[in-house]
């Protein structure tokens, strides 16, 4: 058994899947002709207004003033072709890219009971990816192609030889020389052609007529020229107009990610990283590699990672092209341990962290790590680890004194000195005579670097009204209450 997936008006659909706003408007594709641009393909709305393939652009605009004329876009057609193939490989590994918008599937390795459900699922999948298609199911590739071309959108039509009789002769693709001969004979359907004796047709029309009769009868069969599944998971899109906002870029990326996720699933692999490149109108390029917390095949997770990152990006000019590549690897499956300290949802955590970064700014979200210096409150933010490392054998907390509840930021204070020691403290919520003062502890550093030199004097004090506090004195800024001991 064979099946054919058919996307009608394929070149138009390739444009509509990234520009859905054009769906309700007359649309036609232009190609170079002898006398300028001519229409190669148009949708039903344009046909209803009297436009046909072969019309020149001025003639089409005269017939239909509101028609939208677009050139063919090979990048979009290539991406749509890859999407169609990716959906077909979800059914079987025997897939042929027969023609633009048409692929033929060999179903010998698939149980007969699974033929119809698998095709229906794939048609629904393609509709969700912006490629409405129909399917045909028959014993030969040709019969399946006839059925797919005449099936209603989104449906599977079983094809047999009886089905062929009412089809027009054009379905068998006669040559320009044979078509008027058959019309002069009064033959307009495949049934009328096959009603003639095969030998008589061969005698009158020669080998070309014999081949046409066999195609009309559905007797032609052939082996499939099988296509290999995708080995590299890439997507490319060149914008006809500059993209200046995030929404159209995300729409394009969603289409590409959906297709790449299908190809990953068919290859039984997962994405380890996303390489993103944006071509800008000022000839610059923005590039970023996003490492994923763990291998993933979900299109939703891949898209969320891209969206969270792009919300933090500001480019110097409009976007003219998009390049996307997934670094693929093996899918890892592991059982969660009883005492496992790993994240239950690493991708959800990474997505949340990226959104927080978009709100507070780059470099302001993460895990604080103290810098290698004695200067207080100097640290850097690093990404949290995806798993918690187990404690070493015999681990115990180091001994410590009273915990210090630090003020963030330190509270400005007025301090009176007696014999170069704090004697009185006044600050917001803190005031009193100092009964005990221990210190000073002096710290300084980076004296060899202009602009980074620091010096600080610290005291631990007890006030008459109760309370233990840490005071800090900075030569140029004054006194501060750094914290309170519990």
If you had to describe this structure to a student in words, what would you say it looks like?
The chain is an alpha+beta fold. Helix content is 30%, strand content 33%. The protein has 13 helices and 20 strands. The chain has helices at residues 10-16, 44-48, 57-63, 74-89, 112-128, 141-150, 161-164, 178-184, 190-194, 198-217, 246-266, 299-310, 346-360; strands at residues 2-6, 27-33, 36-42, 68-71, 95-99, 102-106, 134-138, 156-158, 233-243, 269-280, 285-296, 319-330, 367-370, 379-382, 404-418, 421-427, 430-445, 454-463, 468-474, 478-485. Strands 15-16-17-18-19-20 form a six-stranded antiparallel β-barrel. Strands 5-6-1-7-8 form a five-stranded mixed beta sheet. It has a four-stranded antiparallel beta sheet with strand order 9-12-10-11. It is elongated.
């Amino acid at each position: 058994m064979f099946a054919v997936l058919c996307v009608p008006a394929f070149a138009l659909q390739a444009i509509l899947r990234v520009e859905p706003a054009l769906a309700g408007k007359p649309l036609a594709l232009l190609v170079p002709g002898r006398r300028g641009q001519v229409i190669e393909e148009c949708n039903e709305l344009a046909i209803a207004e009297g436009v046909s393939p072969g019309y020149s652009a001025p003639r089409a605009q005269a017939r239909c003033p509101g028609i939208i004329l677009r050139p063919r876009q090979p990048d979009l057609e290539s991406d749509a072709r890859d999407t169609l193939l990716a959906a077909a490989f979800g059914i079987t590994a025997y897939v042929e890219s027969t023609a633009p918008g048409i692929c033929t599937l060999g179903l010998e390795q698939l149980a007969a009971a699974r033929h119809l459900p698998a095709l229906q699922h794939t048609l629904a999948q393609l509709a969700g990816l912006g490629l409405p298609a129909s399917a045909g199911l028959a014993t030969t590739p040709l019969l399946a192609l006839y059925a797919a071309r005449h099936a209603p959108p989104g449906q599977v039509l079983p094809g047999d030889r009886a089905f062929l009789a009412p089809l027009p002769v054009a379905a068998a693709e006669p040559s320009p020389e044979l078509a008027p001969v058959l019309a002069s004979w009064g033959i307009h359907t495949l049934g009328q052609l096959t009603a003639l004796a095969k030998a008589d047709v061969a005698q009158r029309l020669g080998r070309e007529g014999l081949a046409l009769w066999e195609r009309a009868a559905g007797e032609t069969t052939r082996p499939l020229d099988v296509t290999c599944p995708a080995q590299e998971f890439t997507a490319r899109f060149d914008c006809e107009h500059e993209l200046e906002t995030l929404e159209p870029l995300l729409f394009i990326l969603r289409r590409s990610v959906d297709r790449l996720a299908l190809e990953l699933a068919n290859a039984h692999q997962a994405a380890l990283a996303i390489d993103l490149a944006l071509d800008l109108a000022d000839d610059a390029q923005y590039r970023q590699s996003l490492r994923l917390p763990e291998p993933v095949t979900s299109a939703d997770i891949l898209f969320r990672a891209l969206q969270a990152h792009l919300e933090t990006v500001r480019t110097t000019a409009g976007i003219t092209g998009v390049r996307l590549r997934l670094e693929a690897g093996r899918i890892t499956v592991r059982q969660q341990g009883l005492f496992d300290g790993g994240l239950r949802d690493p991708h959800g955590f990474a997505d949340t962290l990226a959104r927080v970064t978009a709100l507070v700014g780059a470099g302001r979200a993460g895990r604080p790590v103290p810098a290698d210096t004695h200067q207080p409150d100097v640290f850097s933010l690093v990404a949290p680890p995806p798993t918690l490392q187990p404690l070493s054998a015999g681990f115990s907390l180091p001994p410590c004194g009273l915990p210090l509840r630090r003020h963030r930021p330190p509270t400005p204070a007025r301090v009176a000195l007696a014999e170069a020691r704090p004697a009185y403290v006044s600050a917001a919520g803190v005031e009193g005579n100092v009964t005990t003062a221990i210190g000073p502890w002096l710290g300084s550093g980076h004296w060899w670097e202009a602009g980074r030199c620091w010096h600080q004097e610290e005291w631990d004090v007890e006030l008459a009204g109760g309370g233990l506090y840490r005071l800090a004195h900075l030569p140029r800024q004054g006194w501060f209450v750094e914290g309170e001991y519990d």
